[in-house]
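User: Predict Origin recognition complex subunit 4's structure from this.
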Amino acid sequence: MSSRKSKSNNLIHTEYLSQVQRILRERFCNQTSHTNLFGIQVQYKHLIELLKRTAIHGESNSVLIIGPRGSGKSMLINHALKELMEVEDVSENVLQVHLNGLLQINDKIALKEITRQLNLENVIGDKVFGSFAENLSFILEALKKGRERERELEASMRENHRSARGCTDPPIGDVHNQGDRTNSCPVIFILDEFDLFAHHRNQTLLYNLFDISQSAQTPIAVIGLTCRLDILELLEKRVKSRFSHRQMHLMNSFGFPQYLKIFKEQLSLPTEFPDKLFAEKWNENVQCLSEDTSVQEVLQKHFNVSKSLRSLHMLLMLALSRVTTSHPFITAADLMEANQLCSMDSKANIVHGLSVLEICLIIAMKHLNDIYEEEPFNFQMVYNEFQKFVQRKAHSVYNFEKPVVMKAFEHLQQLELIRPVERTSVNAQREYQLMKLLLDNTQIMNALQKYPNCPTDVRQWATSSLSWL
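Assistant:
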């Protein structure tokens, strides 16, 4: 009986740990709107006011949200849209269009995506338009007419309902007689990677969106998200003249005490977690972690490198992956190991998996860089340098045929440890194509220290100065 009870408890424990993993992974990966805003409350207040003016009062607006990657641009707009859609009148009327400069690489693709997100594929059909502006205007006009037909249908249904009840009183105040918003649905355009749209031919999409936002047509809000501080310099004069020049800057201006608070809030379980006792123990453990000096040192180093919440989420995700039924809580050791993984050099890790021949070629390139002061080299130079080492040591174990050495050299290029200085010509001989090494001396030496079973003479060759002159 006791064994059955213990099995049941283990299953419940496993289920709760699975829920912990799910809740925290969603928080770290998706940046859900349930996450608290940190250091951007002022910008959030301005943005939600701007969106409400568009959605409720029919006022068109445009704004650029500028900040480095991981500063919270997407989180800011997601929070604002969530709050906006919780307003009853707004949720039924406002439309959203999300575009990304990495996906919509030209205006034609962008227009198709706008049509798809507004569910107007059937309305557009095979119609041919003379210009981009005409096509976009037709889409917004179709929304307007669709809204009017929907309103007429609602009025007809209300009239039939009153007639069926024998009610002859006139309807109380028609909400659809309140300004521009009555004639068409407000549309919110979110343009992620906004700077890439500025590279489209003639910036036609941006021009037309900003032009509509300046006119008394369909009420729209154009929100651009970008990392470029010089974004206005990329805009053409005619596009710039129609932009409102409203900008919001996110700069991760919080200090380390606030960063520590973010760490606690991001790891803590919500009050609605099913098992209150487990949630309480988990949150107490998080509080203890935040007060641990070794954890604070790890977080301080992480904070000094990057204040980005994305990098913090990566650290916490790696620590969370160590949580199991036998290890139900995150420890200081988990965070320290996660920090080592985050700060690990990816190039050095690649070197650990190379063959001894490939390691020898990298050392030969290192010596060529030392001798010729970082000048480009070719395969023949590297091969000659390698042959000096082979002849000096008189080891048959390193005596490879030239085609084998060439294959190893090409593998290093595939791994992107070396790269061509110029674009490869069809007629150029591979042996004489100029290359550049993408590893510095420190990375090479650190990688060799950790290289498994590295031959002693190879390590000595790497530490020798100016090769074998």
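Residues 20 and 341 are 22 Å apart (CA to CA).
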